[in-house]
Description:
The chain has 3 domains: about 1-35, no CATH class; about 40-115, no CATH class; about 115-180, no CATH class. It contains 7 helices and 4 strands; from the N terminus they run ααββββααααα. The protein is mostly helical.
Amino acid sequence: xxxxxxxxxxxxxxxxxxxxxxxxxxxxxxxxxxxxxxxxxxxxxxxxxxxxxxxxxxxxxxxxxxxxxxxxxxxxxxxxxxxxxxxxxxxxxxxxxxxxxxxxxxxxxxxxxxxxxxxxxxxxxxxxxxxxxxxxxxxxxxxxxxxxxxxxxxxxxxxxxxxxxxxxxxxxxxxxxxxxxx
Length: 182
Ligand SMILES: Cc1cc2nc3c(=O)[nH]c(=O)nc-3n(C[C@H](O)[C@H](O)[C@H](O)COP(=O)(O)OP(=O)(O)OC[C@H]3O[C@@H](n4cnc5c(N)ncnc54)[C@H](O)[C@@H]3O)c2cc1C
């Protein structure tokens, strides 16, 4: 470990590296234990109840890597506003299902990034598109895949289906471990 063996040592030497933090912390006394926060992911199992509803990060946050946080917060806020103006229990259930589906979808998308399957797919695409089948289908995949990973079409069932299908069957026997992020 670059900063020390224990989390206390790591925290202290990290603070010492920064001139301002070092000055401010000269006479500081630790009053709470040092805790390490490595998993940003959190998800509520319920999003609505009598007189309350969760939205944005309060409902769930998946991962910082693909910047889904703001998208999900804004999409959720819009959907919740719609449910509130409708006012029926059905509308609130629809809202809850929408957010849960979004969180599920982004979990799979982010997993494709960390597991290396996303970049393996790009690699396969590079050589498959020179084949006859590739030339016939490449435009279709190029249309849907980036739109899902940028968030533009994550709520399109068809685009999500395409991505799931490709991640499952399109790796052509390549081992995604080569591109996995640990
Ligand atoms: C360092 C950092 C970088 C990020 N970068 C990105 C990025 O590049 N792209 C991206 O998409 N997402 C990013 N995110 C995630 C994104 O910021 C959040 O997912 C998003 O802001 C969630 O929106 P929200 O409205 O749910 O919560 P917030 O934006 O956290 O809003 C909650 C608001 O409620 C207020 N509040 C809290 N308690 C109370 C209270 N009791 N009474 C009144 N008000 C209260 C808070 O002050 C805050 O203003 C980043 C997050 C962090 C921490």
